[in-house]
Write a structure and sequence with these properties.
Two copies of one chain form a homodimer. The first copy, chain A, is an alpha+beta fold. Helices cover about 35% and strands about 20% of the residues of chain A. In chain A, strand 3, helix 3 (about 65-70) and strand 4 (about 75-80) form a beta-alpha-beta unit. Chains A and B meet through helix 3, helix 5 and helix 8 of A and helix 3, helix 5 and helix 8 of B.
Chain lengths: ~375, ~375
């Protein structure tokens, strides 16, 4: 494997952080704290610290699994923690010490564990933490928000398998075949995507039968509940074919709907279609989110999540499609994100009403030089009973 | 669902933090940062902020999914983020503001995201962050390190299914049935545990055929590689039957071993058995780790991970079985952990040699009033070819 960031984008990262006076960027990924920037900037899949030496334009990786890093990462130096008594923490501190001069300014992303920063920097008392999420996180998010041609070509493999799965699920569900429970449907998708060549799921497959589709993220993600129960149901799945994941929600209408369900389904479809139409002309992403939110609120509902998000090395990648806030404090921290070529985003309006049901329709869209292109094939599936 | 912490332990938490002058304990769980203390202290499965008001002995939950929290959590108040413009962040800050007086001292665990703490506390300029991992994290870890009778009874369901899976895998692998690849074996376990009544996997099932068993945590966790390749192979899996997870590694010896493999297998088995024997008499956990590490090092190998860890609501729960450090700085941060009734731990020595193979034998042990009891049935499985 190699890193996903392009050389051009890495240069932007170095130049921008250098202008901000940052000496080292400190990235951390661990079992309880995943940071997609690890894979993006180093190629190393998981469990490591990464130091990006801005002045000398060099990268240092301190992985938990040295052999894995040797095979997967693309960095200037891989540190073997077995060479340090006490392992990871001393290895990480010592590596940082070797990179920096006096009074180093260490840039960190927002999500890095508080304690990890404290522990590592404890060994370098004159280090200054530069916590500036509007500059550091925004920059990283911006770099990841448009995909390189190579990333898009990898993503297309995931899209292709997703579309095949949608067709096969529609056939199986409408013909009342062997899929009886939420878990049957989840396992069908999990196994079938591998037969079709996927590396694995992009995230844990989520199936909500009509008994609980009002939950936004069902817990557990798939259970033994019967899929045949009349009402609104859905499956939300992602295919990771070659490192990048798709994200699709296929909704089902099972049996006859009551008038409340009809209103939910019609509103979600309308919001979905109008949001996609808006992609043709919108300058900023929030305009697209607002079209869908206005439709949903005009119908008397409230959407408890954003309209969509980028997809890539992680399922919830930048950019995010949210309404522009009106509250002053929130507005001060807001930057309009323009629609740009190379973005790959989901459009996924949803409405969730307890004791009625939940309905979400989600497709993936690539913003190309010729405009937005819906690349997945999800649509409401009607199942007679 | 309800919270897992007992009333007695919650009282210890309140009393201890009150003595330390902490006003509120701030716990956070999100998609990219899981904190087992969320589930442990509130019962809520995921994606929320939890404030524990120490003085008034009350708990406040700010969940992403309000309906889910209503069904799953056991707290004094659940906040609906839909009531706040801007959602999660304002809801979280406002909730904290309502709880605290002036100059509040906010206790945080080590792993909480740096930026999340900064963002929430930005709204409360006179708040003081109490970052004291040796007191806050050690206390939470200590509370979770011994399991209540209710937790042990839930865990026994996971153990029972794990043992059935070990028997069935041994049968299938030795009789050369339908399991051809790593993925076949992983999917067999993932599907079969659900047929046997499990809620799901405790963690992503890891299978390493002999082609890559020298990786500690294979990446991807299970691939299309053939299991029949001669040499050392293994499956590392966890069953989550009722909220708590088991953790078992079943190692395979496929075909004839060369002398290096024989030495690895014999050393790991010896370290495993001697560590378990040591549990009968050891006062402290590090003594158990040291028995195994000494055996492995005397044979000329190095173990790249700890000897074992607690299991529970998360697979890597406290306590941890590690060698006592000799380095002065590390020793200053070290506390001897005594073996205690109610602990449920793994014993999992392993050796990994590139181009030879990796071998890990892992069983789960409950420390009862009558001494340690090995409750899983893993052992090397020899497969003729």
């Amino acid at each position: 494997m190699s890193r996903f960031v392009t050389r051009e984008k890495l240069t932007i990262l170095y130049d921008t952080l250098e202008n901000q006076g940052i000496d080292v960027l400190f990235i951390r990924d661990s079992e309880e704290h995943r940071d997609v920037n690890m894979k993006y900037l180093s190629g190393h899949p998981e469990d490591a610290s990464l130091f990006i030496d801005i002045q000398n334009r060099q990268t240092f990786l301190v992985p938990w699994d040295y052999q894995l890093a040797k095979d997967y990462s693309e960095v200037d130096q891989v540190i073997n923690i077995a060479d340090y008594e006490g392992g990871l923490i001393p290895a990480t501190s010592e590596t940082l010490k070797k990179i920096v001069d006096s009074n180093p300014k260490i840039g960190i992303p927002q999500a890095i564990p508080y304690g990890y920063v404290q522990t590592v920097l404890d060994q370098i008392p004159d280090a200054k933490i530069v916590y500036n999420p509007r500059e550091i996180d925004s920059l990283l998010d911006k770099l990841r928000s448009t995909k390189s041609p190579q990333e898009i070509s990898l993503l297309k493999k995931s899209i292709e398998i997703s579309n095949q799965l949608v067709d096969e699920m529609e056939e199986r569900m409408t013909n009342h075949t062997d899929i009886k429970t939420e878990l049957d449907l989840a396992l069908f998708v999990d196994i079938r995507m591998r037969e079709l060549g996927a590396f694995g799921v992009g995230f844990e497959t989520l199936v909500a039968s009509s008994a609980r589709s009002w939950q936004i993220h069902t817990y557990p993600r798939a259970d033994q509940l019967p899929m045949s129960r009349p009402g609104l149901a859905l499956i939300d799945f992602g295919v990771n074919a070659a490192g990048l994941t798709s994200d699709v929600t296929l909704p089902f209408v099972i049996g006859k709907m009551n008038s409340k369900m009809e209103k939910i389904v019609a509103t979600v479809e309308h919001a979905h279609n109008e949001a996609i139409a808006k992609l043709d002309e919108a300058r900023f992403l929030h305009e697209v989110a607002e079209v869908a939110i206005d439709i949903i609120e005009a119908a008397g509902f409230k959407m408890p999540h954003g309209l969509g998000h980028g997809i890539g090395l992680t399922v919830h990648d930048s950019p995010f499609l949210r309404k522009k806030p009106t509250h002053e404090t929130l507005l001060n921290n807001w930057t309009d994100t323009p629609l740009e070529e190379g973005m790959v985003i989901t459009i996924e309006p949803g409405i969730y009403e307890k004791d009625v049901g939940g309905f979400r329709l989600e497709n993936d869209v690539i913003i190309t030089s010729k405009g937005p292109k819906v690349v997945t094939n999800s649509h409401p599936v009607y199942i007679d009973q």
